Amino acid sequence: MKSLVIVVPELLPVPPVQGGAVEHWVDEVSRRLIGADVRLAIVSRPAYSAGQSGIEYIGIPWTKIERFFHRVKERVTWKNPLRYLAKIQNVFSYGCRVARVVTNFDVVYLHNEPNLLLFMHKQAGQKIVLHMHNDHLSMRLFRPLYRRALAKVDHVICVSDYIRRQALANFPEYTHKFSVVLNATDPDVFKPYGDEAIRQLQDIVSIAPDKHYLLYVGRLTPIKGVHVLIEAFQAIHRRLPNTRLIITGSSFFGGAAKTSYEQSLITLAAPVSDAILFTGYLPHDKLKYLYSAVDVVVLPSVWQDPCPLVVFETMASGTCLVSSAVGGIPEVVEHGKDGVLVEANNPALLAQAVCDLMASDDIGRLATNARNKIVAGYTWQRLVDEVFDRLFNSKH
Description:
Blueprint: E1 2-7, H1 21-33, E2 38-44, E3 55-59, H2 64-75, H3 81-101, E4 107-111, E5 127-132, H4 143-149, E6 155-158, H5 161-170, E7 178-180, H6 195-200, E8 212-217, H7 226-239, E9 243-248, H8 260-268, E10 276-280, H9 284-293, E11 296-299, H10 309-316, E12 320-324, E13 340-342, H11 347-359, H12 362-377, H13 380-392
Parallel strand pairs: 1-2, 1-4, 2-3, 4-5, 5-6, 6-7, 8-9, 8-11, 9-10, 11-12, 12-13
């Protein structure tokens, strides 16, 4: 029996009791690998929660010094050098311990943190696969280190062709190592729930039949463009007063500290505060109903968003998506057929797109096409089959 160890970055645990897109991804994939004649383990921060039977969970506890640097990182801005010092310290501490626990596994499957490769000593006959959910490999400062680290890797999986192209531009000598496995979701979980969704959400939001609802789901950080959405919503609300906006998420995960950016969003929303609800972080067992209950989900990213799970969850829910045309999103969403794509960082265009959609008869058609697309080709089982091939097929 082959042995596989999956390693996530240094911040969050699996099972994903604090959220985290990568951690949720690993949880979904790992549970579908149970019974695949593979000894399976996951390395993460301790979850202190029962996971799936058949998976060994290896927790890397926080040290006091890690906790200190993590608090520093949470309290300073992206421009403060202390943030990067704190990141380096925590990755170093976590990476050294990870390197010790993965030595006896046949396949080491790293997620989204290429820095961990720097601490690993590849064993004879061992295979290392790196899965990139974001464009970290393009960071100029670390490229020389990553060039050496990638020599240890047998294969690099990218969540979109956008990520693959960015990586190849910086590391053309490793072209043969890169491939794409697009993300997925569970259309049996994210689906149209009808009136059940409204009942399940009564403790969070009252969905009124005479109102139209827009929804944002994701991290509350500048790159996600929530400020653009709020500015656009002010124009939308002037034209469509019965429209409401629900903003769901936190700065990073469940329990994350409030940031100055979050406070700025509340200030920006003040002129239409009666029509905007900030729910904070919500777990997936609530999100699945929220996706279903609203009219439109808006993804206003102002960065090259690689392949966000929100896209797949929205489409599977039978809800219309309006998104910035950035990163890997156009690889999944076809404008005018199963969603609406707009220029990023343009509140006026975003407002116009939403208002035009709400005034048209296209919402139902786009939503139906979107769900059909997910059911046909973007399920977790499709993804697991592709990933399993790259992990264990000798050709890769």
